Amino acid sequence: MDTQFLYSLITGIFIGGVAGYLGSLMITKRMALVGDALGHVALPGVALALIYGFSVSLGAFPTLILGIILIWLFEMRTKLPMEALTGIVFTASVAIAFLFLPEEKVSTALIGDISQVGFWDTLVSAILCILTFLVLLKIFSKIILANLSENLAKVEHIKVERYNFIYLVCIAIVVALGIKVTGSLLMGALVITPAAAARNFARSLSQYSYGALLIGSICCVLGILAFKFFTLPAGPLIVLIASLIFLVSLIFKK
Amino acid sequence: MEKDIVLKVENLNVELGREKVIEDLSFDLGEKEILVLLGPNGAGKSVLLRTLLGLHPFKGEINWKKNIHIGYVPDDFDVPPDLPLNVKEFFHFKRINLPEILPALQWVGIENPSKFVGKRLGTLSRGQLRRTVIAWVLVDRPSVILLDEPMVGIDIQGRESIYNSLVKIWQKQNQAIILVSHEIGEVVKKADKILALNKKKLFYGKPEEIITPQNLAKIYGYAISL
After folding, report:
1. d(CA B8, CA B64)
2. For each of chain B's 226 residues, which pLDDT tens digit applies?
3. Nearest CA in chain B to A154
4. Do residue A149 and residue B79 have CB atoms under 8 angstroms apart?
5. Is residue B103 part of a domain?
6. Cα separation of A47 and A172, whole Å?
7. Total count of domains within chain B
8. Which structural domain, as residue segments, surrounds residue B134?
9. Does residue B225 form part of some domain?
10. Does B140 map to a domain?
11. Model pTM?
12. A151 vs B76, B82, B86: nearest CB
């Protein structure tokens, strides 16, 4: 097995896992499509990274933060629904990116290319994934409780606003990392599909969240293996395998 | 503050938007006392409860006894049917484990609690969910409990049994209670004090003094008898 391939696998396992875990929270909070939208918001940063040859995650992250701040400011100013404002920001981002994204880089930006990750990229991704997972693990039950009753959570001394902010930062990190694997267009699938499949299998919250983590990692491993054998792009293969697992999970849904 | 007073409220005013929801309200709650907040829908009872818990801005004074442990049973606790959260995991949110969960569920009249803990919250009936939340709030023994319409949406039989369990717990654990109710029933007779509210304080005192047909007509705008 060549080193390059090993890097791709390791990166996929970590990012797929943490995206799945985060997805179990996002589906519960009915925010599953936010991952998808933010994947698009990141596109100008991804385009810059591809042109100047640095990590796409590094390019995506500041654009994501800027996008989130803009959506938040617009919401404060207009009180329009969050989804409408997200729609405005993400389509504008895509439009901006396509003004300067070179044609030969379009495919990498939209569906990712994990075959080129290097040692440092892999190491930094793995560390970031572990740290983000640990943070999510700590805030998981608090966010779920606040989702069931915000007032109850506050009375139990849970700083709901603070946890929501940490949760949003985690989303930005995971989306930035996920773009490396499945690209801007397909990033949403990494958080939605494994968690949705796990929800069908799960009989408890821990089965659900860890199931999503496991399915996320498995999709990435199988997708990257399939890419090696069929020489088709890895991003779409990962997403299709996740969709297949979702279909299988329907059998288990009571 | 006097030693046996857990809560003292003075000249409390609450506005939501630009509407005055509570006007110039003063009352207090002693240790082990049961205070029932009565009033029609929209009288500001739930807002008052949430204000006492620090969830709404207010003018005036709300003084809780220092370091008091407050439990709150909200009126808006709903669980999506497909959320795979079981009863045991729900208690784990509070870092409470099985040896404490089982007796707490028994307090609120859940039969066969060791089987019940494996059930998903989203599949419970309204009554069972209500009991579970009450048990969850009571499990770490708060010294005062605030309950917001705990019987709403529950059939008469269920109400009676939840009510009986609550009375048993009160007798055993002796917490101070503030209970919001928009109806008058058995629960009122157990109260030490009644605070009848319709934005302003209408009546405040012992149940036998407050619950008269004339007063009830004033509180609800029409005649009611028990």
Report:
1. 7
2. 455 889 999 999 999 888 888 888 899 999 888 899 988 887 888 899 999 999 999 999 999 998 899 999 998 888 998 899 999 999 999 999 999 999 999 888 888 999 999 999 999 988 889 889 999 998 988 989 999 988 777 777 777 777 777 777 887 888 899 998 766 666 677 788 989 888 777 788 888 887 777 777 777 776 555 5
3. B55
4. no
5. yes
6. 17
7. 1
8. 5-220
9. no
10. yes
11. 0.90
12. B76
Residue of B nearest to A201 (CA): B84
Question: The complex's ipTM?
Answer: 0.87
What is the average pLDDT across A120-141? 96
Q: Give contacts of B124 with chain A, Cβ < 8 Å.
A: none
**Which residues of B fall within a CB distance of 8 Å from A254?**
none
Q: Is residue B118 part of a domain?
A: yes
Out of A78-82, A187-191, B80-84, B96-100, least confident range? A78-82
Q: B162-171 — which CB contacts under 8 Å span 24+ positions? A: B162/B108, B162/B109, B162/B127, B162/B130, B162/B131, B162/B134, B163/B187, B164/B109, B165/B107, B165/B108, B165/B109, B165/B131, B165/B134, B166/B108, B166/B134, B168/B107, B169/B107, B169/B108, B169/B138, B170/B34
3-state secondary structure (DSSP) of residue A122: helix
- We report the CATH number of the domain holding residue B129 as 3.40.50.300
B48-77 residues labelled b (16+ CB within 10 A) or e (exposed): bbbbbbeebebeeeeebbeeeebbbbbbeb
Beta bridge mates, B178: B35, B146
Res B223: pLDDT:
56
Are residues B85 and A204, on separate chains, in Cβ contact within 8 Å?
yes
Q: Which CATH class is domain A3-252?
A: mainly alpha
User: How distant is the Cα of B55 from the closest Cα of chain A, in angstroms?
Assistant: 7
